[in-house]
Amino acid sequence: MSPVSLTDSDGRGLRLVSVDARAAVVGPLSLTELHLRFASPEPRGREGTFTIRLPASAAVSRFALVGEQGTLEGEVVERPPAAGAYEAGFRPRLDPALLEVMPGHEFSARVFPIPASGDPEVIVSYSEERPSAAEPYRLPLAGLPALDALSLRLLADPGDGGPPRVHELRREDITPDHDLVVEPAEIDPGAIEAVRGGRLVVARVTAPAQDTPAAIDRLALLVDTSASRAPGLATQLTTVRALIDRLRRDHGDSVHLTVAAFDQSLAPVFDGPIAGFDSGATRALLARGADGASDLPRALRQASAMPSRPTRLVLVTDGVSTAGSPDDERRALAALREVGVTRLDAVAVGASRDEAALGSAPSWAASPCRGAGPRWSLAG
Fold it and tell me: Whole-structure pTM over 0.70, yes or no?
């Protein structure tokens, strides 16, 4: 599925003609501005819906539509205010578009007008944190359709007071099959740790943390196999294998491990000593496939009835839930607490994950582990 689309009011997708990316990297921050040009062959103007999936850490700062009437600036708002403001402003044409923040770090906008027989251009700007100087700059391109043109111009502050490094790429008639990556040595050789703008400072800091993991005796690992995980299921299972190996190394062979897949329901694939988890269990997860809705509350409720009675629960998920209510989740969490689960953690996976859901924490969760958020941290 393409991470970028513009669909008219008749449900027809406009062809994405070109992507022009302009980026800057300064130490702990990067800024990317995308100019997305579409082909609009219809001889009439009409309304449409623009959707884009951005990196999980992206914060959108600009959204605009370039067409016959010049550049019309939009506004980034949460979904309920966006819908009301659009309806109020549509007829008097007060707003060209309002960008709604959706689950899974998708952004959607109803745009008007899509010009007749032209090439409308959508501009989206976003910033990202770079917590580590070892992180590359990544431009998400995988999944885009065939393009007439692709270009990137990236400016990187070398941190030595000299001129910025310039990286440029231009391609024609290209179908991107992977993201564009610029390695850390090319963008942050001086390892700039802080950036100041007026009285504001953004800096990388390393908080002191205890290095000894808490003991684990009985652990349940719930792996998301709902439809949203289909594109990255194989990669996700590699993460699961690595996580289990890490847990075994840190906590020993005596840990009792239960592994189950979940979508609308919970399906155990392994139960026994962690040392017994092998490639057969991984193949069972892969054979299950990724399909159906994601009902996390139901999976948690069923986990509370596991015969192994785990004391720790770890989810491997993108956090995008399509079934179950907040009340269902509260009841499921209460059931887990009653049977002795002392901590719920998660490993967030996938480019399209719900950061808002992944950031919430039940009141009974233990203190966060190092390097992650409260509820959704990686145990040990």
Answer: no
